Amino acid sequence: SQTIHQWPATLVQPVGSPLSLECTVEGTSNPNLYWYRQAAGRGLQLLFYSVGIGQISSEVPQNLSASRPQDRQFILSSKKLLLSDSGFYLCACPLENYNEQFFGPGTRLTVL
Amino acid sequence: RKEVEQDPGPFNVPEGATVAFNCTYSNSASQSFFWYRQDCRKEPKLLMSVYSSGNEDGRFTAQLNRASQYISLLIRDSKLSDSATYLCVVNEDSGYALNFGKGTSLLVTP
Fold first, then answer.
1. Which of A44, A59, A104 sits opposite B100 (nearest CB)?
2. What value, to the nearest 5°, has the Cα angle with vertex A9 and ends A5 and A10?
3. What is the C-alpha separation between B107 and A64, in angstroms, rounded?
4. What angle do CA A4, B80, B23 make, to 5 degrees?
């Protein structure tokens, strides 16, 4: 069964500071990985997805970027955080039938 | 992306009650449908998939109406542990990412 590790679990950062969130996945043969954000009062929003090493697709224009340096590693970054970047960041991978998704424990980011 | 709409609630019900949530989706080409459960400050977890013929898992029953483009979740004999936010989720392209509603909050009280 799949396991997703995300760290840190909680992060408080000042506006303008950089960001790096990591996600690693175990126990899946499906190469697809996803980053979602859940902001206060909003539904989960897909930020990026990756179908393999070095391949990143962005869903919405924003202050964030993503990278896939290894097959089982997905990184979310920012050079300068904005207040609007606050939220709950979730990494996900498909379950075996490709339609359902399994989420990691998430990183709760507060930008002050 | 097309919309997935849910009544945000909150739904406050006593233990043992039956409660139903509805969800509508705007993309008629949507292929897969799910209900996820999200506890406070936790990640969403798959509750059940929703099939065209309807499906049941213990106290939970999910139904899909493609013609009207809505999905429902029925919870019978509510337990305190059912208190959570229930997310309606639609997959518009197989293998692609999911489209989430904002969730319906349920509070089951003693």
1. A44
2. 160
3. 35
4. 65
